[in-house]
Design brief:
The complex is a heterodimer of chains A (109) and B (116). Chain A has 109 residues and is mostly beta strands. Chain A is built from no helices and eleven strands. Helix content of chain A is 0%, strand content 59%. In chain A, 35% of the residues are buried. In chain B, strands 2, 5, 6, 7, 10, 11 and 12 form a seven-stranded mixed sheet that branches. Chain B has a three-stranded antiparallel sheet with strand order 3-9-8, with no helix packed on it. Chain B is built from no helices and twelve strands. Classes of the chains: A mainly beta (109), B mainly beta (116). The A-B interface holds A 31, 33, 35, 41-45, 48, 88, 90, 92, 94-102 and B 31, 33, 35, 40-43, 45, 48, 50, 56, 58, 90, 92, 94, 96, 99-110.
Chain lengths: 109, 116
């Protein structure tokens, strides 16, 4: 059974600091997705990582994928308040997508 | 942009009622999904469909059924609503990729269902 684990589940950061969210999954897959959810809203796609060693960056967020380690990371650089949200990783499996529990990020001034 | 529209944003129903949640997408996507989202549990898949009249059970199908009569519409049905079905329900769609999704999911805004 495919399991997707994220950590930490809760993250409180100061503005300007760096941090990394980790996503581990239990079975082979070379497609991993990161989503963002703002409070009271639905999920929006951030990154799609399609191969081992893939790295995608947008603004202060950078995602990477290591399929051999079954690990993806979402790195936050010089956090700002606007990044406060819940971040989900997800792995696809036979036409459905299994989500991690989410990391609730709060960036404090 | 892909648009996934869920018919209701908030819904309050009584125990035992039959409840219909409707979802329509406008991008001709083959795959459609119903998830429920609960605090601390993330998103859990209820049912998905990769073609008209096709459906597959997800991880928590008990107490739910689905209907996909047209490609753009995927309905979730609670046959007899119970209080433990109080949740946020999210519909999503994606392109089909020959055995895998191969595109991110596009989500609707969600329906917050309360069963009293």
């Amino acid at each position: 059974e495919l399991k997707v684990e994220q950590n930490p589940l809760f993250l409180s950061m100061q503005e300007g600091k760096n941090y990394t969210i980790y996503c581990n999954y239990s079975t082979t897959s070379d497609r991993l997705y990161w989503y963002r959810q703002d409070p009271g809203k639905s999920l929006e796609s951030l990154f799609v990582l399609l191969s081992n060693g893939a790295v995608k960056q947008e603004g202060r967020l950078m995602a990477s994928l290591d399929t051999k380690a079954r690990l993806s990371t979402l790195h936050i650089t010089a956090a700002v308040h606007d990044l406060s949200a819940t971040y989900f990783c997800a792995v696809d499996r036979n036409n459905d997508m299994r989500f991690g529990a989410g990391t609730r990020l709060t960036v404090k001034p | 942009d892909v648009k996934v529209t869920q018919s209701s944003r908030y819904l309050v129903k009584r125990t035992g009622e039959k409840v219909f949640l409707e979802c329509v997408q406008d991008m001709d996507h083959e795959n459609m999904f119903w998830y429920r989202q609960d605090p601390g549990l993330g998103l859990r898949l209820i049912y998905f469909s990769y073609d008209v009249k096709m459906k597959e059970k997800g991880d928590i199908p008990e107490g739910y059924s689905v209907s996909r009569e047209k490609k753009e519409r995927f309905s979730l049905i609670l046959e007899s609503a119970s209080t433990n079905q109080t949740s946020m329900y999210l519909c999503a769609s994606s392109l089909y990729g020959g055995g895998s999704i191969r595109s991110p999911l596009h989500f609707g805004n969600g329906t917050r269902l309360t069963v009293t």
